[in-house]
Amino acid sequence: MEEVKISKKSKVGILPFVAEFEEFAGLAESIFKNAERRGDLDKAYTKLIRGVFVNVEKVANESQKTPRDVVMMENFHHIFATLSRLKISCLEAEKKEAKQKYTDHLQSYVIYSLGQPLEKLNHFFEGVEARVAQGIREEEVSYQLAFNKQELRKVIKEYPGKEVKKGLDNLYKKVDKHLCEEENLLQVVWHSMQDEFIRQYKHFEGLIARCYPGSGVTMEFTIQDILDYCSSIAQSH
Question: Which intervals hold domain Exocyst complex component Sec3 C-terminal (predicted)?
Fold first, then answer.
């Protein structure tokens, strides 16, 4: 495990020692499930799985082609699936830890890769929130020259539906390049990205409703549009 070398040119995918641990544990369970020396096997499992965890992390830190979060997410997802299937009772804590690592790195990858798809809008509303934090009442923010209704409209105009869809399409291609086929997490990641984008969208909608009440200013696309874009992009690739 410690000597594993990964290619700098291709995706990392599932590491050989992660697949080998799965094979070894499956074989060991079929032979020694109720053996008298079960305790020795459990001790070996605990040592081995620690080695697997440590070295997945090491490879992830050294990976150049594949983002660190993807190496962690895919391999810990695989480990979690293996431990769930084999039900090895002495590795229950490790199963939970693998699931947690998978979930954390999925979330981190989604937030980092998605970033701020509506960057100028993000920037505008950060300014709005800063004014509110300084003590200006929400419904009075629109009296500030830099944050009046016309300025908001101008920023919103920069994000018509077709631009948003184009941005999402490029994002899908980037994610597809990062992920390996055997772990099959593309749709899971894509769905999480859709949820995160909708969360940002709702945040903006809430700020518009509170800071620009009755202004009639709305985004140029709806949540339903986001769902449609994401669905049609996933189907077209």
Answer: 1-214
**Token output for 21:** 């641990």
Q: How far apart are CA 14 and CA 18, in angstroms?
A: 7
Q: What angle do CA 106, 220, 134 make, to 5 degrees?
A: 75
Closest CA to 193 of 111, 119, 121: 111
For the stretch 72-108, pLDDT in tens is 999 999 999 999 999 999 999 999 999 999 999 999 9
Kindly give, in sequence order, each residue whose CB lies less than 8 Å from that of residue 223, ignoring residues fewer than 6 positions away. Answer: 198, 201, 202
Q: How far apart are CA 105 and CA 98, in angstroms?
A: 11
Count of CB atoms situated within 10 Å of the CB of 142: 18
Distance CA 58, CA 101 (A): 14
CA angle 164, 165, 168 (to 5 degrees): 90
Ramachandran sector of residue 76 (left: φ over 0; alpha: ψ -120 to 50; beta: rest): alpha
Please write the tens of the pLDDT for every residue from 107-129: 999 999 998 888 999 999 999 99
DSSP 173: H
21: Cβ contacts below 8 Å, ≥ 6 apart: 48, 49, 52, 79, 82
Q: Where in the chain are the domains?
A: 16-114, 119-236
The whole-angstrom separation of Cα 14 and Cα 23 is 13
- Quote the tokens at residue 16: 């050989």
Local structure of 168: helix, strand or coil: helix
Q: Are 210 and 138 in contact (CB under 8 A)?
A: yes
